[in-house]
Design goal:
The chain has 162 residues and is mainly α. It folds into two domains: 83 residues, Winged helix-like DNA-binding domain superfamily/Winged helix DNA-binding domain (Arc Repressor Mutant, subunit A), CATH 1.10.10.10; 41 residues. It contains seven helices and two strands, in the order ααααββααα. The chain has a two-stranded antiparallel sheet with strand order 1-2. Strand 1 and strand 2 form a beta hairpin. Helix 3 crosses helix 4. The longest helix is centred in the last third of the chain and has 38 residues. The protein is flat. The termini are far apart.
Length: 162
């Protein structure tokens, strides 16, 4: 398959089939956080410990709503409340080790177990070719995105200089 259009069409056709067969089924693993909870976990992981009020401002939600989400996450053992060392009046919310684990599970698109099972049925040369090809596709995609970003910046610079 030397033609890039044919290869792209074949990949676009195969990807949904792979996803359906190999995707991580979080609901079967006892996922403990709903989408609002996962959003709070993700924000905490990026921002660091926050008060409920600070999280509410970020999500543009009422403090009571965010407090209820944090209550559920705390009951599930995914976050904990702790006093701010610099200002003992403030109570911060932070991820527990289980919260970090939950985020890692949530990031998994494909089930490692299902992928491993499929890979075990492939010949070693086919496995190597698949991984090499996927790495090349990711690198080519990164390069295309980089060029697209550079072209966009160039167009913006030209508009500003007019």
């Amino acid at each position: 398959m030397n033609d890039a259009h044919e290869a792209a069409a074949a990949l676009a056709e195969l990807f949904p089939a792979l996803y359906l067969r190999l995707h991580a089924r979080h609901f079967k693993r006892g996922h403990r956080a709903n989408s609002a909870g996962v959003a709070v976990l993700q924000h905490l992981a990026m921002a660091g410990p926050l008060t409920v009020g600070e999280a509410a401002v970020h999500f543009a939600r009422a403090q009571s709503v965010v407090s209820e989400i944090v209550d559920r996450l705390e009951a599930a053992g995914l976050v904990e409340r702790m006093r701010d060392e610099r200002d003992r009046r403030r109570v911060l919310v932070w991820l527990t080790p289980a919260g970090f684990d939950e985020l890692e599970r949530d990031r998994q698109v494909l089930s490692p177990e299902l992928v491993r099972g499929a890979m075990e049925r492939m010949k070693p040369a086919a496995r190597r070719a698949l991984i090499e090809g996927m790495r090349a596709l990711v690198a080519a995609s990164d390069e295309a995105a980089k060029r697209g970003h550079q072209a966009q910046q160039s167009r913006q610079t030209k508009r500003r200089s007019r």
